[in-house]
């Protein structure tokens, strides 16, 4: 148990988690699917390239994983910092 | 049984179900009316939110946009889903903790300003009204196509149905009806897609079929599609887009617009706990993705099927004779959504990229018949003819083609899919019920957002703060009824802005509401003046940029520049400007706030309190 009554610590941990998640969010959608697509052109998947897959399906899958990961981590942080809803 | 009777049965059964649920889930208090009593399980709420979110545009139009745009249309797939990541992490849990009924509620308290709340109410009403007109007209089209009534009659039937369950049940009735509507629309969307995927690839899961082998030719389906469309002079289906900046900004605008749309945000007020708001976002996206994984497959396969229909012996051989065309093509020609024009008088259908020749020829014919500028039109035809004759080493000219002869409206792909794939009549009945479910579920959610803004934010906060709960419930029902009447009237007489949902609703939500809400939670320093200036700056720059290209207040002929890439600032289209507007909003709010005095202590405490989940349960009963 780290700092049970440290609201600013809880908020910092939350913001860190959000930043990390949003970096992955941006990397998969704006990165792999759009700006970095030419770099991934060599990786073939089902008759096209990996960037196309990220643009049409892959990024949505990543979004889902990110939200569930965030919800799960935040529930643990809520308890750790004692701010959960009993 | 005829197709007409089958359609009536499917639509009738689905409506009976919605009515049954509405009677069962009547709202007795304002809390039940606005937020379903705050007691909806996150999985159920996720399903309802998915139906709320997936509108007539997602159900009917999106696959057609993807079929036409290929890779470039991925913007819609990512943009309309990625916003839920922002909602889950940046807005939903904290707004749920705040624990009131509406989006302007939060703006009003956090920025201690009636002016800020008023701006939010106006943004909410304009964005939601633009959006709801599209749903009403979408429902009207579905009714008229499948139930063979006049378009206007269809729209009135839709209005009566929504009136019944939304006014009676409020958010509670809407939520449980949306669960049923989600199931109906999902089944309707998936079944034809499964059959088509099986037929083309042998894979029963359309999302996987998209990346598997085309059974007939033995090459991957996307490779096959790239081949046939380039043989017809189009850009390859998977081709990269030239303007990446615009694609990034368009995607970002759709994402922040999604996160800032009030009818989506209020869904997160209906769950019991802050943690549930986070889970709801996840479940919503799971339920949305079931359709969004299928949509790109529907788009690609429908395009391939359509080309296959027009060129039964391959794109290099003679095309389909008009007299031999399938029944569905004739049916849709009656609605005007498919148009055929035999430009070279060979009795066959040519569908290809004609470098604008067909359109130029039609314009010339019109000019000759109606006395327009014949010289200019002739020059246009000559220009298009030259480009046309050079395309693919003159292959089109050699074949005696004189321009594209078949115009297919994007919107019919999903609705006509079962007919194109020759599926049994009951599947067509199902599509009718599904399209209506998508339009009605979104309309109901939007109408609730509008009516709560009127009854709660305008009347209770400004005009009569002492109104009783029962009185407010009455007012909420009356505002809902008025909102439906207004939306129906606007649906019958669509104003210019009705077609601009993506630019207007997403632009407003993304450039004004999303930044204000986010800064209200993540900064204690943003004050009333900063928020007001920021919202106005974001809103006005975005609207001006849209109006300059699309006409002032969308009145045709008042645009200052043509809406094409060469005139856009840095190649940024009006649809993509919401993201820039949001940036301006953030910047202005920061500069103004830091040069004026900090918010009072109790506001900083309010921010502290929304950041911590503890104590959310009681907050709903304020």
What's the name of the CATH homologous superfamily of the largest domain in chain B? Answer: Sodium/glucose cotransporter
The class by helix and strand makeup of chain B works out as mainly alpha
Average residue-wise pLDDT of chain A: 91
Q: What is the assembly state of the chains in this entry?
A: heterodimer
Low-confidence regions of chain B: 618-622
Distance between the termini of chain B: 56 Å
SS-based class of chain A: mainly alpha
Number of helices of chain A: 2
Distance between the termini of chain A: 17 Å
Please state the average pLDDT score of chain B: 89
Reported CATH architecture of the largest domain in chain B: Up-down Bundle
Largest sheet of chain A: 2 strands, antiparallel
| Spans where pLDDT lies below 50 across 5 or more residues of chain A | none
Number of strands of chain A: 2
CATH fold title of the largest domain in chain B: Sodium/glucose cotransporter
Can you list the strand order of the major beta sheet of chain A? 1-2
Strand content of chain B: under 5%
The Cα radius of gyration of chain B reads: 25 Å
Describe the protein's architecture and organization:
The complex is a heterodimer of chains A (86) and B (622). With 86 residues, chain A is mostly helical. Chain A has a domain at 21-80. Chain A contains 2 helices and 2 strands. In chain A, strands 1-2 form a two-stranded antiparallel sheet. Chain B is mainly alpha-helical and 622 residues long. Chain B has 2 domains: 24-306 and 420-619, Sodium/glucose cotransporter, CATH 1.20.1730; 316-409, no CATH class. Helices cover 71% and strands 1% of the residues of chain B. Chain B is built from 25 helices and 2 strands. Chain B has helices spanning 3-24, 30-35, 42-53, 56-69, 74-98, 103-110, 114-147, 151-201, 206-209, 221-231, 244-260, 262-265, 274-310, 327-335, 357-370, 374-390, 395-398, 412-420, 425-463, 469-492, 501-522, 528-550, 577-594, 601-611, 616-619, and strands at residues 338-340, 406-408. In chain B, helix 5 crosses helix 24. Chain A: Residues 9-84 form the Sodium symporter small subunit domain. Chain A: The chain crosses the membrane at residues 17-40, 52-72. Chain A: Keywords: Membrane, Transmembrane, Transmembrane helix. Chain A: It comes from Psychrobacter halodurans.
